[in-house]
């Protein structure tokens, strides 16, 4: 497997639609939460605005949990993919390094044996 193929197998976060949708939903939830809270605090003496603000605020919590759930699972996928990629590269590098060690040992042994002559 070449380096080009392993780079293609990695998850790119800005191309993952579920992750982007989850982030947008979280930010939308935060904006709606502040709007709903502000609406219910500013016009707390009018029941319509109070109930509307509290409803928007409660809905923002639902959106927040949905967004966190979406972002969470996609983040787990990305972390797993990245860990597997780095482990594979480390194993390959270690194998390449250890494959050269016996050759180096034989060369050093030959140098030591030639010094005795």
Please outline what is shown here:
With 117 residues, this protein is mostly helical. 88% of the residues lie in helices and 0% in strands. Helix 2 packs antiparallel against helix 3 (47-116).
Flag low-confidence runs: 1-6
> If helices are DSSP runs of H or I spanning 4 or more residues, what is the number of helices?
3
- Described by the principal axes of the CA atoms, the overall outline is rod-shaped
| Amount of beta strand | under 5%
- Structural class of the helices, strands and pairings? mainly alpha
- Note the quaternary state here: single chain
Intertermini distance = 47 Å
- Profile the largest sheet: none
The radius of gyration is 29 Å
């Amino acid at each position: 497997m070449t380096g080009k193929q392993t780079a293609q197998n990695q998850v790119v976060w800005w191309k993952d639609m579920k992750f982007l949708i989850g982030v947008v939903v979280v930010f939308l939830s935060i904006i709606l939460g502040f709007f709903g809270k502000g609406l219910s605090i500013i016009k707390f003496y009018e029941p319509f605005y109070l109930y509307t603000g509290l409803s928007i605020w409660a809905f923002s919590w639902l959106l927040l949990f949905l967004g966190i759930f979406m972002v969470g699972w996609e983040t787990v996928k990305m972390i797993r993919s990245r860990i597997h990629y780095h482990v594979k590269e480390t194993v390959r590098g270690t194998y390449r390094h250890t494959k050269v060690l016996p050759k180096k040992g034989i060369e050093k042994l030959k140098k030591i044996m030639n010094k005795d002559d």
